[in-house]
Amino acid sequence: MLKLLRPAVTRVLTPLGQALARRGVSPNVVTLVGTLGVAGGALGFYPRGQLFLGTVVITVFVLADMLDGVLARMLGTGSLWGAFLDSTLDRVGDAAIFSGLILWFMATGQRVLAGVALFCLVAGAVVSYAKARAEGLGLTCDVGLAERSERLVTVLVAAGLSGLGVPYILAVGLWLLAAASAFTVGQRILHVYRQTVPT
C-alpha cells in the first residue's frame, strides 16, 4: 500500500543522498545511525510520556531506512551484507518503538494497552519472519494487509497525535494494528500453504 509512496520519498531524499555520496559516507553507516536514532528517540522519550517529541525524533531517523537504499544505488555498493544488516536493524528499531510505549503504559497503569502493544510487537515480528522463512524456502510471501511500513506509520501517527492531546487515538491505533497484524500473519500462512500443499 505505502510502497506507492516510495518513489516520491526517494526523489525527496535524492539530494541528501548525493551529498552523502560525495563525502563517501557508507550506506551501512546510515543504516546504523538511523537505527540508533530510532531506538534512542523511542526509549528516551516514550517511557516519559513525551509521545509527540519522541515521534518527531523517530520519524527523522526512520527516513534513514530509505536513505541508505538511495545512497547504495548512487554508490553502486548494494550488497547482501547491506540488505541483511538493514532488515535485521529494522527489527531492532521496531522493538524499541513498541518497548518504549509498553514502558510508558506500565508506568501509567495502562496494563491492557501494554499487552496490546506487546502483541503488536510480537505479531509484527511474526509477519516479518513468515516472509523471510518462506523466501528462504524458495517461495513467495509478498502479501499482507499490514506490512512493516503500514505498521510503522500507524503506530507513529497514533503516538504523535496522542502526544498532541487527541483522546483515545493511541488505543484505537494499537487495537487496529493488532487486528491487522494478526490478519496479515494469517494471510501469509495461507499464501504459503497454497504454494506447498497440493489441492
Automatic annotation (TrEMBL):
<feature type="binding site">
    <location>
        <position position="69"/>
    </location>
    <ligand>
        <name>a CDP-1,2-diacyl-sn-glycerol</name>
    </ligand>
</feature>
<feature type="transmembrane region" description="Helical">
    <location>
        <begin position="52"/>
        <end position="76"/>
    </location>
</feature>
<feature type="binding site">
    <location>
        <position position="65"/>
    </location>
    <ligand>
        <name>Mg(2+) 2</name>
    </ligand>
</feature>
<dbReference type="InterPro" id="IPR044268">
    <property type="entry name" value="PIP_synthase_PgsA1"/>
</dbReference>
<feature type="binding site">
    <location>
        <position position="73"/>
    </location>
    <ligand>
        <name>a CDP-1,2-diacyl-sn-glycerol</name>
    </ligand>
</feature>
<comment type="function">
    <text>Catalyzes the conjugation of the 1'-hydroxyl group of D-myo-inositol-3-phosphate (also named L-myo-inositol-1-phosphate) with a lipid tail of cytidine diphosphate diacylglycerol (CDP-DAG), forming phosphatidylinositol phosphate (PIP) and CMP. PIP is a precursor of phosphatidylinositol (PI) which is an essential lipid required for cell wall formation.</text>
</comment>
<keyword id="KW-0472">Membrane</keyword>
<keyword id="KW-1133">Transmembrane helix</keyword>
<dbReference type="InterPro" id="IPR048254">
    <property type="entry name" value="CDP_ALCOHOL_P_TRANSF_CS"/>
</dbReference>
<dbReference type="GO" id="GO:0016780">
    <property type="term" value="F:phosphotransferase activity, for other substituted phosphate groups"/>
</dbReference>
<keyword id="KW-0812">Transmembrane</keyword>
<feature type="binding site">
    <location>
        <position position="86"/>
    </location>
    <ligand>
        <name>Mg(2+) 1</name>
    </ligand>
</feature>
<comment type="similarity">
    <text>Belongs to the CDP-alcohol phosphatidyltransferase class-I family.</text>
</comment>
<keyword id="KW-0808">Transferase</keyword>
<keyword id="KW-0479">Metal-binding</keyword>
<keyword id="KW-1208">Phospholipid metabolism</keyword>
<dbReference type="InterPro" id="IPR043130">
    <property type="entry name" value="CDP-OH_PTrfase_TM_dom"/>
</dbReference>
<feature type="binding site">
    <location>
        <position position="90"/>
    </location>
    <ligand>
        <name>Mg(2+) 2</name>
    </ligand>
</feature>
<comment type="subunit">
    <text>Homodimer.</text>
</comment>
<feature type="binding site">
    <location>
        <begin position="28"/>
        <end position="31"/>
    </location>
    <ligand>
        <name>a CDP-1,2-diacyl-sn-glycerol</name>
    </ligand>
</feature>
<feature type="transmembrane region" description="Helical">
    <location>
        <begin position="29"/>
        <end position="46"/>
    </location>
</feature>
<keyword id="KW-0444">Lipid biosynthesis</keyword>
<dbReference type="GO" id="GO:0008654">
    <property type="term" value="P:phospholipid biosynthetic process"/>
</dbReference>
<feature type="binding site">
    <location>
        <position position="65"/>
    </location>
    <ligand>
        <name>Mg(2+) 1</name>
    </ligand>
</feature>
<feature type="active site" description="Proton acceptor">
    <location>
        <position position="90"/>
    </location>
</feature>
<keyword id="KW-0460">Magnesium</keyword>
<feature type="transmembrane region" description="Helical">
    <location>
        <begin position="152"/>
        <end position="178"/>
    </location>
</feature>
<feature type="binding site">
    <location>
        <position position="79"/>
    </location>
    <ligand>
        <name>a CDP-1,2-diacyl-sn-glycerol</name>
    </ligand>
</feature>
<feature type="binding site">
    <location>
        <position position="68"/>
    </location>
    <ligand>
        <name>Mg(2+) 1</name>
    </ligand>
</feature>
<dbReference type="InterPro" id="IPR000462">
    <property type="entry name" value="CDP-OH_P_trans"/>
</dbReference>
<feature type="transmembrane region" description="Helical">
    <location>
        <begin position="112"/>
        <end position="132"/>
    </location>
</feature>
<keyword id="KW-0443">Lipid metabolism</keyword>
<keyword id="KW-0594">Phospholipid biosynthesis</keyword>
<protein>
    <recommendedName>
        <fullName>Phosphatidylinositol phosphate synthase</fullName>
        <ecNumber>2.7.8.-</ecNumber>
    </recommendedName>
</protein>
<comment type="pathway">
    <text>Phospholipid metabolism; phosphatidylinositol phosphate biosynthesis.</text>
</comment>
<dbReference type="Pfam" id="PF01066">
    <property type="entry name" value="CDP-OH_P_transf"/>
</dbReference>
<keyword id="KW-1003">Cell membrane</keyword>
<feature type="binding site">
    <location>
        <position position="86"/>
    </location>
    <ligand>
        <name>Mg(2+) 2</name>
    </ligand>
</feature>
<comment type="pathway">
    <text>Lipid metabolism.</text>
</comment>
<dbReference type="GO" id="GO:0000287">
    <property type="term" value="F:magnesium ion binding"/>
</dbReference>
<feature type="transmembrane region" description="Helical">
    <location>
        <begin position="88"/>
        <end position="106"/>
    </location>
</feature>
<dbReference type="GO" id="GO:0005886">
    <property type="term" value="C:plasma membrane"/>
</dbReference>
